[in-house]
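Blinded run. Sample ID left blank on purpose so nobody reads anything into the name before looking at the predicted structure. Input follows.
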Amino acid sequence: MKTTFRSRILASYIFLIAVPLILLGVVYYRTSLQVVTEQAQRNVYEIVKKNNALMDTKLGIIEQNSLALFVDKDLFRVFSNLDPTNEADIFDADRQVSSVLSKYFTLNEDVYAYQLWTSYFTFGQMLPQGDPTQSDVYHKAQEAGGKIVWYPTYDFVDMFDQPYLQGGKLDFRHLFSATRYLDFSYLNNTTLEKMAPGVERPVLTISFKLEALRSLYEDSFPENSRYLVMNADYQVVASSDPGKVAQQYKEPWLERVQRENSGTLRMTLDGEAVIVCFDRSAVTGWISVVWTPESTLVSSLVPVIRTSSLLMVVVMGILAMVFAYFMADRITNPIKKLLGAMRSVGGGDFQTQVAYHSNDEFGILLHRFNRMNEQIRLLVTENYEIKLREQEAEIQALSMQMNPHFLYNTLNVMNWTAIENGQKELSKMLVCLSNMLHYTSRKDWGAVHLSEETEWMSNYFYIMGARFEDKFAVSYEIDPQLYEYKVPRLLFQPFVENAILHGFDQMETGGVIRIRGWIEDDTRHYEIADNGRGMSEDTVHAILYQESSSIGIKNMIARIQLMYGGEYGISISSAPGSGTSVLIRLPLHPQN
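Blinded prediction complete.
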């Protein structure tokens, strides 16, 4: 009887604890797998967008340089005075034209050939093209009437009708091109001179080998990934499948990709679950599509997740069995003691004190069990809640350290990779970003020394200068005495960011940010001024006072007033076309 009761209690505890543990392990495994998959999906999507941005930057330079040819004085003079029937004039013109084109395009390592096509001669680099003016590339440029045309990858032999090259090994077999119809003009003092109506206008053709795209995609995505770059007409520009290049490839799922322009999808292709990431180029209009098997993204982590889940279940199961055995023993031992006390009383030992409210054994058992159970419950609950709060605090602390620590390590790996690859500019940008992250992730959000703030801005300006190709310059005029005082952290950040992203957004070069600091009437003054496009009075009012505008500036005003009082803060002076000046006023001595 005694053994049966103990066994039932033990089995009940094991069952009640083991079942939730198994369910918890399954949920943990599935949730971890889902989180890892979603993170991998975001990573691949970011790579696609960054690859597109990198290619847009390179091709955007080509587009800008081609625009400059419209007003090139040397090309205007050459083609205005050229006699197409004079062979000597043509060869002399070719020499001059080649020199001009090389000035614009020879420094771009992705450019394979740059040419000016006319019906009587091909100026620039020579390729076995026959008469290129009979090609579809030439006709598309003519139809565009001066707008740049990004012609997708084509077969050189077919495009220029050169069948004798069919069996040869050509390193330029597949090319894609940027073409533009050039109608030269020349500003002579205040008079705009145009080419005579009878002069044939050439077509500029900048050609790129397919490897310029292939190298970008094949080295940056997870193993077993496939990629596709195509235009709006489903013409394949580049692909992991060489057989699709220069062909039209139209599948039902690609229609959704073309409509949405940028994003991610999860679907099944060829019986395999894949993650599709896509993004459209702002320069060429081509869309880049990468699809990766889900199994590839998580293959290295699945064993780790499975092992950790199984280990957790096993360890917790053992602990549950030990705990269940302990609880069963705590329950049955009082019964033994109670029966022994009852035997002593039955034997005549009246000194034994046993409290009970009824004359049956179960009444006494329930009474004792209830008291013991209540005490145990209070003790266990109290200890459990204390331990739980300690664990939650510890987990929170670890979580707060995890993300910056992970990012520092990741940036460090990227920095060493950049150094090993000779990318000193990228390495310096990564170091700057790491310093900025360290500065912004510090636990203490109190005031900092001005030197720390200016150091953070130097890192920020370096990264933004690299991003916008030195479209702006920065100058400092700060009273050295101000470096003895502290300022709120990230005091200048929202204002310099607005100057770069909004003030200079319509400028190519010439932007200036001036940061000044001086002391006047026991007040510290800091000014951030730019020569950007400026703002209207309504815009300034909206930034300072409307709830939905410029959260960063409003937060900084609130921080200043909380730290120093309502009489200090920020004022903005601006007018359209006249730049913007932001004045920050802080007390010379901190408020109590």
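Unblinding after everyone has recorded impressions. The two ends are 76 Å apart (CA to CA).
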